[in-house]
Amino acid sequence: MFKRLLLLGLVSGALAGLAALIYQKVYFKxxxxxxxxxxxxxxxxxxxxxxxxxxxxxxxxxxKWAPKTGDILFNLLFVILTFAxxxxxxGYILPLDYEQPELFPGLTVPMLFFPALAWFTFKPVFIKK
Length: 129
What we know:
By secondary structure, the protein is mainly alpha-helical. The chain has helices at residues 2-31, 41-65, 70-84, 87-91, 104-126. The chain has one domain (2-126). It is elongated and about 50 Å long.
């Protein structure tokens, strides 16, 4: 089970990172707002993998400690933390030399949801009840 959870975290994290990179390119084409010095492709990709690997470990621990309620507790925790993370890009102070700093949350806030969406999407493929 632990190997499948780690594989779930790795695959869903990589796909979340890939989706975020594609979104960054589309956002740049639409708005011509370049924040690639702050939100680098490496940070985006590695961040998605690390978040989903951590999510898989937490899921495994919750299922082990609370077999009946672990699934719903994890889902609730993951969703709450994802929504709580919105305050980070909204409160982030950009250097003064950036044009259109008001577009920064529009780039980063949707990216916060990609790891959770990918994890919840691929969980049934890797974890069978």
